[in-house]
Amino acid sequence: MTSTRSVIVIGGGVSGLAAAWELRDRAEVTVLESDAKVGGKLRTGTLAGVAVDEGAESVMALRPEAVELAEAVGLGRTLTDPAPAPVTVWTRDALRPMPAGHVLGIPSDPAALAGTGLLSDAGLARLCAEPDRPPTPLTEDVAIAAYLSERIGREAVDRLVEPLLGGVYAGRTDELSLRSAMPGVAGIAERGEPLLASLRGRPRPRGSFVRGIEGGTGRLPLAVARASGARVLTGTTARALEPTASGAWRVHAATADGPLLLTADAVILAVPAFAAAALLRPHAPAVHRELAAIPYASTAVLTMAFPRDRAGLGALPDGNGFLVPPVDGRTVKAATFLSTKWGWQAAAAPHLFLLRASVGRAGEEHLLDRPDRHLLRAALHDLHHAVGPIGEPLAARVTRWDRGLPQYTVGHAARLARIAEGVAALAGLEVCGAAYEGVGIAACVATGSAAARRVLEGARAAVPG
Ligand SMILES: Cc1cc2nc3c(=O)[nH]c(=O)nc-3n(C[C@H](O)[C@H](O)[C@H](O)COP(=O)(O)OP(=O)(O)OC[C@H]3O[C@@H](n4cnc5c(N)ncnc54)[C@H](O)[C@@H]3O)c2cc1C
């Protein structure tokens, strides 16, 4: 038996909904979501009559949290594997598949790169010549590029690792933290082991790294919200928090119908760091500063539907799409051939070829300062060069994710420790979300569940005697 009877979750993205799910049957939960629908970065729309994901399009299958949640809320039968295909990089003017067995672009077998053209001869020679002598064990966090350039050479970082990290974080290796964005590699560095030899000895995971949801990943938040039994108030933006004399929290919210005041025993902030910072400013100025200092990258997802019978499409290359290193100076950072990658999308619209392109990494905000039609034109120009003449789309949509992805820059882990300490001093308040311990859906589910468990534990600890 706990003393927590009511919890307000602010933010109806997958993190907040995972918290609501964890609290089901154990607390009365209200979720406040400022948008008209729950889901946050998980949003499925319709293009040319077909469901398409406008944000996240797959969940990590190498860790269990997201897949288990999908199964628990009744979506197990809709989980689906992508068509098997290697990661392909569009670089040095060609689409070049990456040999299997890499860790975020770091090859475990550099010799397998020979003949792929991914690197110049000099770049490949440098990669294969990782200094034998293990470096001094790393004692503090560094930028990924700072560590990797010394190990495998700058060209391998630019053309192999950078496109992968651009895909996951929309981030740059010169700024992202080795410890937070590549914890496994950081472990090797901290033990002072040689990098490539250590990766070579690792067991390779079997099966697909990611899974999709038939009908779109946007089904996941809707199903979790429903199954959690939580009261979900969409179109409701939390504006301020106020602790009450009895140790509860009051939330001042704004809705289309006017202000709304809600009180609960505990509050979970499941919003981006900048939004949590604003709400915590009066109560924990130091936490506010730390949260406000977490940078974000903006991106745009361009979804396009082409008629399949159009000349040129028959010549589309194999594979599920490609990633692009920033060093090549293109507009698109990635493209996904949705109709090849996901069987359910091909089946839903056999007459169409669905494709999505992403634009925008940290430091590329200028690319997004253009109207939608210019952005589409620039993306089509790149696609034309990468895959051949693909003509004009029948339908297209640009979805902008302003400050969509938090950047785990050098020192992120230490920052998290300071945030955790500051938040722990606020009884009945927790934070969770993509800003903390992983931007992927599975990691977000894990932080939401953990925040909910801390709320329940805090309540238990507060029960006298
Ligand atoms: C374009 C893109 C593609 C991605 N692709 C993948 C992928 O394929 N696989 C993967 O695993 N991950 C992917 N990610 C990352 C992943 O989708 C996100 O990190 C994750 O969904 C974030 O969930 P969240 O709940 O922490 O935050 P959010 O999804 O941002 O949810 C927070 C919610 O809080 C609401 N909110 C904010 N302020 C307030 C307030 N004051 N009051 C009330 N509500 C508020 C927002 O409207 C939002 O709905 C992608 C991200 C982006 C941007």
UniProtKB/TrEMBL annotation:
GO terms for molecular function: oxygen-dependent protoporphyrinogen oxidase activity. Its cofactor is FAD. One of its GO terms (cellular component) is cytoplasm. Its EC number is 1.3.3.15. It is found in: Cytoplasm. Belongs to the protoporphyrinogen/coproporphyrinogen oxidase family. Coproporphyrinogen III oxidase subfamily. This is Coproporphyrinogen III oxidase. It comes from Streptomyces hundungensis.
